[in-house]
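Hi L.,

As promised, guanylate cyclase:
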Amino acid sequence: MYGFINSCLQSLVVEKFGLETWNTLSSLAGLQDPFMTYTVYDDAVTLKLVQEACALLDVQADVLLKLFGEHFFSFCKQAGYDTMLRTLGGDLVEFIQNLDALHCYLALSYQEMNAPSFRVEVTENEDMLLHYYSDRKGLYHIVPGIIEAVAKDFFDSGVRMVVLEQTEEEQRTGKLEHVVFLVQTWQNVSEKSKADEEKLFAKMKDNCRGVKKCGWDLIKTAVLSEKDQPQRSCSPCYPQKLWIEEKSFCNAFPFHMVFDANLKAHQVGVNIQKFFPGLLNGDATVDQYFTLVHPQVTFTIESIRQFINSQFVLESCKERSFIKLRGQMLWMDSLDCMLYLCSPKLRSLQELQDSGLHLADLAQHDVTRDLVLLNQQRLAEMELTNQLERKKEELRILSHYLEVEKEKTEMLLYAMLPRHIANQLKDGKSVEAGEFEVCTILFSDVVTFTNICSACEPIQIVHMLNSMYSKFDRLTSVHDVYKVETIGDAYMVVGGVPVPTATHAHNVANFALGMRIAARDVTNPVSGQPIQIRVGLHTGPVLAGVVGQKMPRYCLFGDTVNTASRMESHGVPDHIHLSASTYSELKDSEFDITERGEVEIKGKGLMTTYFLLKNLRLSEDAIMGREGTQSPIIHPDNTDRQNHTDAEKIQSESITTSSSDQSTPGPACGP
């Protein structure tokens, strides 16, 4: 089937059940790319879609197929076939009788189209018997949906269809499914009453009274109805003698054949004789030279008479003279013969040339000339449409890749700058520096990092820092703090900047506790033991802004930055050093803090500082942001005992800390 059919099924699911349902359905059916209108797809693709749709939507196949038939009619109208469909017939019978002709016309563009065949019989009760033939089994439920939609839209009538018979017939191309429908119709619009008709006639008489008309006006009045449509009450008059000689007839209709019930040819057009000179010799029959392509029935007079209202396509079975003919079959009772009025079936000028024909071989009255030229343009438009659809699909794929790369770029940008500031820079706006009245800054570094670097290979240092920083980076998202930068082994974060928050000190304190826990999982490449870090915190005002153009950075300036760096450089390994201002933010909360005492801080003099020990309400798993964690239960007696032990340990470590560790300066982001 062509992609047009599958696109219709996609449109039905999206319109009735939503885009999400179609995405699920296409995933179940193993489809990834959208359907191309003029691309041929295996029937199994469509059948798979129908099967999965029935299972997903929990509906029977006949219900879904009928719904598809109704939607297919609307889909064809929206695709530009509305006018073509409306002109097929004046009533439902004529419409169905001309469906095969429409399919034959569309086959000029859709060369691989394998459409079903339809045949109509009218019963004595004026009911319709619709015969449906197809080599695709189980799809006949689509027919009632289409016919009911056509009757309602075009002829303002209701339709009731019942399956009378369903069989398989052995035909030339294989087994065909033959389904016979009983079709009953009724008008939805009430007919005009007799009084309305009398008023209408009176109005027409008044319009004609007192008006002087010329001869042509009188003729128009006589033959035209109120809607200016010709009246069809004229009975044909046939001549007693056919006023055309045999030679003129064969020249006027160069492609025609007359054959009897045994398919023996008695008369053929001049151009058919040119291609098949032996057709009139001896006992040659038409089926020796031609194969019946459409309808897909056995090439016999009985089969032809069953489909007498269909368009017939014959294909030559001689390799040297390949040609296709399409036309109308007329049964002549008096001669007991069949007349086949036809013309070559051609899709393009290339096929005309390949068949060994020229435009001059086609009769002047034959519309095949115009059809070939118009379809040549149509094929060019189809090829252009194919190219546009392929380019559209390529653009869709490229657009998807572009979105993925854009997301990666934005992730890198947001890693360098705060999100709202990065968005301002992307929009070409200037970012002004901002002053924050209070925030909490953290610095950390690795103890004896200089000694580690001198004793290890560079790649070992990179692996160690990458492992450590990856763990720290994850914690910034857990505790909602902003990572400012890293320089060597130094790591700097801030709470309350660039988005002010009242819990800035609490967030940074929990982050510091997480850093200390995470550092225990990072191995010192020299000793093989877990590394130790120093952490320092300070709270105060800062000035923040974007610095630089080539590699812009969001930097913090002010004495708060320097003081926080001093807290880290004068800290104790594996401990979190707090300034008095940070302590005042945390002292009345859930944190366990002990006083270190007065410490001589470079450039600051004596300062009373503190050590952050733990969070009394959060467990280690909660601080690390692990799923399924619960806060621990705190026992006051155990807590006091542990605090006393930790205080003694800290004082001992503070005395024994080497001067070389304390003299390591931290990074400064401001004067």
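The longest strand covers residues 157-171.

Thanks again for sending the construct details.

K.
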